[in-house]
Amino acid sequence: MLSTFLGFGGRIGRLSYFLLTLALAALLTFVIFAMIIGLALSFGVRHSGGEIPPRLLATILVVTMPIYGWFTLTLMAKRFRDIGWDPFVVIVGWGSIAVLDICVAVYVPRFATAHDSQTAFGLMLNLVMLACLLFWPSTEDDVTPMTTAPPRPTRVEALSMQGGAGAPIRASFGRR
């Protein structure tokens, strides 16, 4: 199971990608809340007015975000490979366009959306890439456990494998 999250090799189907992404988000949410509660109690937040210090939240995010980013990148790489695209090219290209989009949104504010961190183009690109990850079918060159088995050969193909379409089929009825 850990090889699913730690390595960039292999493939995963649409349903596996969706379920693993949900499980990863739920697990990380639980870990972050547990860290906040544990660290807040150990640092005596109850005595300081009940607010969690911003440095504590920043520390928690610095610890958890690289782990979440790594796991997300490995899942995306496996899914892109299952689609039939080169994961390195797609992820680096997507990231480059996202950084360029953020720069445009910051330096040309009239193109920014309501959140001021991306443009409408960047938003649409992210939605299209998410839709590709979730809905684009797997390539047909390899049968993975999450896909269906290849179709059975037709009668003509079965006859050609037995010796040709004109070869007689010998059948016997009863005992000899």
Keywords:
176 residues
Please explain how this structure is put together:
The chain has one domain (7-137). The model has no long low-confidence stretch (mean pLDDT 80). α2 runs antiparallel to α3 (54-83), α3 (54-83) packs across α4 (87-107) and α4 (87-107) packs antiparallel against α5. It is mostly helical. It has helices at 2-6, 14-42, 54-83, 87-107, 120-135, 155-162. The protein contains six helices and no strands. The termini are far apart. It is elongated and about 95 Å long.
Summarize the structure.
The chain is mainly alpha-helical and 176 residues long. 62% of the residues lie in helices and 0% in strands. Helix 2 (14-42) packs antiparallel against helix 3 (54-83), helix 3 (54-83) crosses helix 4 (87-107) and helix 4 packs antiparallel against helix 5.
* Silhouette: elongated
* Average pLDDT for all residues: 80
Residue share in β-strands:
under 5%
Distance between the termini: 57 Å
Counted beta strands: 0
List the helices and strands and how they pair.
Elements: H1 2-6, H2 14-42, H3 54-83, H4 87-107, H5 120-135, H6 155-162
Helix pairs in contact: 2-3, 3-4, 4-5
